[in-house]
Design goal:
238 residues, alpha+beta, 4-stranded antiparallel sheet, 10 helices, globular
C-alpha cells in the first residue's frame, strides 16, 4: 500500500543524506513525485536481481539489506532505520539490485522515483553534488563496517552497537534492542553463538541483556572497550 507524503515524512526526507544538501526548490519537486510505502514485518520490498526504479528513505521501522550465499547462508549487508536512504546509485543507473530488502519490523518508506531525479539532473546538474555526497557517505560507512569486522573483536563490535543506541551524554542507560538477536549477529558479522559469548563477556562490564533490551551500568567502560586496540589493549579492559 502506498500514500502521499505528510509534512512529517517530508521533514524526515529532508534530513536524509540524499536531500540534506539540495536547495529547497529541488527537494520540494522530488518529494511531490514521491510516495510512502507501508510494509508489514517480514514483507519483501525488492529481491536481488529486480530492476531498480526508486530511491528509498526509511521513515519509520527497520529494513534489512541482505544477500543469500551459494550455500544458502544469509549475509546481512546493512540494516537501515529512520532517515537513512538506500539504493541511490543503483536506481539512477537503472541497474538491478545487488541485494534484497526486507522489513524486519513494520515499516514506512519514502519512495522517490529515480526518473524524477534524472530529469532534475538534466536541468540542474549541480544536484549531482548531493548524489556524490550520499554515495561517499555510503562508501565511508562500508569502509568502517569492513574495519569493524576485520580489526574488532566480537565483544567490541557488540559494544559499539550498544553505544549507538545509548542517549548522548548518558553514563548509564537501558536501551531497546531494535531487532532480534539473530539479525544483530548477522549485522555484526557473527554467528548467534558468538554473539551470546560476546554478551557474556560484556556482563563483566555491567551490561545485562534480556530478550529485547540491554541495561548498561557504565557507558564510559563500554566506550573504553570499543576504543581499545583489538589486538592488545582489550585485555586490559576485560
Amino acid at each position: 500500500m502506498s500514500t502521499k507524503l505528510s509534512a512529517a515524512h517530508r521533514q524526515i526526507a529532508c534530513q536524509s543524506r540524499l536531500f540534506a544538501t539540495l536547495p529547497p526548490e529541488m527537494r520540494d519537486g522530488l518529494l511531490d513525485a514521491a510516495h510512502v510505502v507501508h510494509l508489514l514485518r517480514g514483507q519483501v520490498l525488492f529481491q536481488h536481481g529486480d530492476d531498480a526504479h526508486d530511491i528509498h528513505i526509511v521513515a519509520d521501522g527497520w529494513m534489512k539489506l541482505y544477500r543469500i550465499a551459494p550455500n544458502g547462508a544469509e549475509a546481512v549487508v546493512g540494516v537501515m532505520t529512520r532517515g537513512q536512504s538506500f539504493g541511490e546509485p543503483i536506481a539512477l543507473r537503472r541497474a538491478a539490485y545487488p541485494v534484497s530488502a526486507e522489513a524486519t519490523t513494520a515499516c514506512e518508506l519514502i519512495a522517490v522515483p529515480a526518473q524524477a531525479f534524472l530529469e532534475m539532473l538534466q536541468t540542474r546538474p549541480e544536484a549531482a553534488i548531493s548524489i556524490l555526497s550520499a554515495t561517499f557517505l555510503h562508501l565511508q560507512g562500508l569502509v568502517e563496517q569492513i574495519e569493524q569486522l576485520k580489526a574488532r573483536s566480537g565483544a567490541q563490535r557488540v559494544a559499539e552497537f550498544l553505544l549507538e543506541l545509548c542517549p548522548e551524554g548518558a553514563e548509564s542507560a537501558t536501551v531497546v534492542l531494535p531487532y532480534d538477536k539473530g539479525l544483530i549477529a548477522g549485522r555484526l558479522g557473527m554467528k548467534p553463538e558468538s554473539l551470546s559469548r560476546a554478551f557474556a563477556k560484556l556482563r563483566e562490564l555491567g551490561v545485562r541483556v534480556n530478550q529485547s533490551s540491554a541495561a548498561i551500568a557504565s557507558v564510559s567502560r563500554l566506550q573504553d572497550l570499543a576504543q581499545a586496540d583489538a589486538f592488545g589493549a582489550m585485555s586490559k579492559v576485560i
